[in-house]
Amino acid sequence: MIPLSTIQSTAESLMAKAAIEIPEDYLGGLRACANTETGDLSAFVIQAMLENYEAAKEDRRAMCGDTGVPRWYVKYGNEARPEGGPVAVERALRQATASATRSVPLRPNRVHPLWRTDHDNNVGINAPEIEYAFHPEADWIDLTTVHKGGLFGSDYRMLFPGDGMQGIRRFFLDTLVGFGKRGLACQPAIVGIGLGGSKDACMVLGKQASCLRTVGSRNPDPKIAAMEEEFRELGNSIGMGAMGFMGSSMVVACNIEVGYCHTGGMPMSVHMFCLSSRRATARIHGDGRVEYRTDPEWFTPYSRRETVAWDEPVAVAAE
To answer: Which end of the chain is least crowded, N or C, by CB within 10 Å?
Structure first.
């Protein structure tokens, strides 16, 4: 039985980590951008952000004044038994969100869409969002919090099979140019692309690809992995750098996830995470042990399975 107190205290720690500490994979990617950036203003912004990250970590303050809209990703091992069940876990995550808003502090960004009601704690109707996944033969729970900007940085288009790769490239470039020229994203950033699924699933896949995949990871399909590298280079060839200034570092990484879709369509979504890529993960084991990490490990062979039943692949020993 996983104690509820452990779940809540871990969730509160994750909220602070996400707001203050840049994940090492993204930090490494941003440093690589700093080494290759060709635009003077863009290079200045990247260097200023790197210095800001160090100051935030040293002072234990949120790295950005706009701390986004906190959300949760919860992966349950099939044998996990949290005290109080899933309803108690949800309450603990909502309480951790409210507590962290005061203690970190986070900016209270959540309001009712019509009445603008503000509880001053980032909690309300359907807020924070909590998404779930599952894993076989495990007794742990993975908690991941992501603090993503809540206004822009996402777009969707229903493409068709006849649009092919050229259509995918065109929408990708149109979106990035629009984000940069109109100030709809804070870049350089991790870009996520969702291909396929229903419209809502397509948007979810793209957001998860941007927020839950690490810099340097690759889709296991070699053709999609090649697309990821091609699109990263393509995004950095449009003449835009940090925060829309002229430059060559729009995209730190490009991650693509796919889902089976209707035969007549090819839906696509594009998401940019944020110049402050705020995420943090912890695994709470069945015996109460807690392990913190920066890779959410959200996408696994199990989550990408194509078959009805799941038979875990057997590793073949090298001869």
So the answer is: C
What share of the chain in percent tops pLDDT 90?
85
Task: Identify which of 149, 148, 172 has the alpha carbon closest to the alpha carbon of residue 268.
Answer: 172
> In which region does residue 297 sit, left (phi positive, over 0), alpha (psi from -120 to 50) or beta (all else)?
left
Alpha carbon 163 to its chain centroid, in Å, reads 28
- Using only C-alpha atoms, what is the Rg of the chain? 20
- CA triple 302-307-311, angle to 5 deg: 55
Tokens of 169: 């490239």
Three-state SS at 113:
coil
CB atoms within 10 A of CB 78: 10
If phi over 0 gives left and psi between -120 and 50 gives alpha, with beta otherwise, what is residue 60?
left
> How high is the pLDDT of residue 315?
56
Nearest to 148 by CA among 205, 32, 64: 64
Beta strands in the chain (DSSP E): 69-77, 130-135, 141-148, 154-159, 189-196, 251-259, 266-272, 278-284, 290-293
Looking at residue 30, what is its pLDDT? Answer: 92
pLDDT tens digit string along 143-189?
999 998 877 789 999 999 999 999 999 999 999 999 888 878 888 99
Name the residue with higher pLDDT: 18 or 244: 18
Sort residue 153 into left (φ over 0), alpha (ψ -120 to 50) or beta: left
How far out from the chain centre does Cα 219 lie? 15
Q: Return the SS3 of 64.
A: coil
Residue-range domain boundaries for the chain: 151-278
